[in-house]
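User: Show me a protein chain along with its predicted structure.
Assistant: Here is one chain, sequence first, then structure tokens.
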Amino acid sequence: MPDQDLLSRLCGTNDSNLHLIEKHLGVSVFTQGNELSLGKADSQLINQFQHIVDRIMDEAAAGYDIGPDLVASILQLNQDGHRPEDYRSCGIVISGAVKKVYPKTTNQLQLVRALRCKDMVFCTGPAGSGKTFLMMAEALRLVLAGQVRSLILTRPVVEAGESLGYLPGDLEQKINPYLRPLFDVINTLLPPGFGKKLMDSGVIEVAPLAYMRGRTLNNSVVLLDEAQNTTREQMKMFLTRMGEGSKVFITGDITQIDLPRRTPSGLVHCLEILKDIPEIGMIQLEARDVVRNELVRKIVQAYEINKIKEDSE
């Protein structure tokens, strides 16, 4: 272990992280100086332990806090049988970023793989499952690596119940509050002020979904957030904007549709009619993929259980 401070962070408050690892492996973990060792000389367990420690160190090097939630997600991935190279190959390394991004669950791993090999990817899942964060990170990687010319961010505007034309400010000021979650990801991953420079230079563009009509989006990565709030007509219009050399990422939570009653969701509709097109990736994240906070995971699971009960009545 490089230093005592890093060892202390890995062990966690009152050795809480070590206790999770011990429970997972079924063997005691000991500390001596800056070293960690297992209470059983089993080559398979030692390999697993080294793999877990390496993953935690990867996250620490990427700037993330080493807390019980992070350790639990790494242990779950290890339990699912993934190899260390699986994580590293799906790590998102953004040029000039302050952090590297690694998938923390099996479903997140599948999402990153889909983003890499498909030109159009849909990802649905509950709040906190990482869908927007991972898609935004991969989109930034593409544009800052020069693989595409621009990043276009859009989403439907339905919550305010009023036309953009009646909102104060110019177009960017009108739409920015709705895209705040995407800007938060940019500010988390990039150095201070870098995101604004990209927007000022036109590398990152924000555009209300309604303003997409008539455009052909070439050599770009286009991210549609909150897609559950699109109508069928809006979704068809958006999907047919895709041009040469572009990638399209669509994210949404079909349990949080804010459209007027009796207005079908364009996301729900297109997931059904496009499901047999092999060139399109469709990934569904679940409550167990929530890594934002353990309490959020429990809240999402409680709502899922309640919905199952309601549907069965």
